[in-house]
């Protein structure tokens, strides 16, 4: 039986979702500060959980021949995350069009990222041609 997905007759994904990640030793440099690119990995974790809460999963989308590659990423840092910090990432889809979705992320408790200036943008591509396709849950 197929898992229900957001769309006609099913609840929409939540407007905002909080995801918690802990800074591992492997995420840090010699000074114990999180390497800047790890924020993009943490954003991916938060995006995945946002989608899952809405009834989608990357695994199911890929099985259906759908991909959501990130075509843009932006992050402004206020202060570093350090080894063993627990970080809460608040993720919200601020732009949702038939082919594009933008996720904004911030960390309100710790103010590590500048709100509204930390984001990723994805487009839907459909296999086998990887042409841009409509972004419709459950299609």
Topology:
Elements: E1 16-22, H1 38-53, H2 58-63, E2 66-67, E3 70-74, E4 86-96, E5 100-106, E6 119-123, E7 125-126, E8 131-132
Antiparallel strand pairs: 1-4, 2-7, 3-6, 4-5, 5-6, 7-8
Task: Please identify the oligomeric state.
Answer: single chain
Largest sheet: 5 strands, antiparallel
Broad structural category = alpha+beta
Q: Helical proportion?
A: 10-25%
Count up the helices: 2
Assign the CATH superfamily.
Hotdog Thioesterase
Mean pLDDT: 76
Radius of gyration: 16 Å
The name of the CATH architecture is Roll
How many domains would you count in the coordinates?
Answer: 1
Distance between the termini: 16 Å
CATH top level label: Alpha Beta
Spatial strand order of the main sheet = 1-4-5-6-3
> What's the shape?
elongated
CATH topology: the name is Thiol Ester Dehydrase, Chain A
Percent of residues in beta strands?
25-35%
Order of helices and strands: EHHEEEEEEE
Q: In terms of per-residue confidence, which ranges show pLDDT below 50 for 5 or more consecutive residues?
A: 1-11
Total strands: 8
């Amino acid at each position: 039986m197929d898992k229900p997905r957001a769309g006609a007759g099913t609840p929409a994904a939540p407007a905002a979702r909080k995801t918690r990640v802990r800074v591992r030793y492997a995420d840090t440099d010699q000074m114990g500060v999180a390497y800047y690119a790890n924020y993009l990995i943490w954003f991916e974790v938060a995006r995945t959980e946002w989608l899952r809460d809405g009834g989608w999963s990357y695994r199911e989308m890929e099985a259906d021949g759908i991909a959501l590659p990130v075509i843009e990423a932006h992050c402004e840092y206020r202060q570093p995350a350090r080894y063993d910090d627990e970080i809460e990432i608040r993720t919200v889809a601020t732009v949702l069009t038939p082919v594009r979705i933008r996720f904004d992320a911030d960390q309100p408790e710790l103010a590590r990222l500048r709100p509204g200036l930390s984001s990723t943008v994805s487009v839907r591509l459909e296999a086998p041609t990887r042409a841009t396709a409509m972004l419709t849950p459950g299609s």
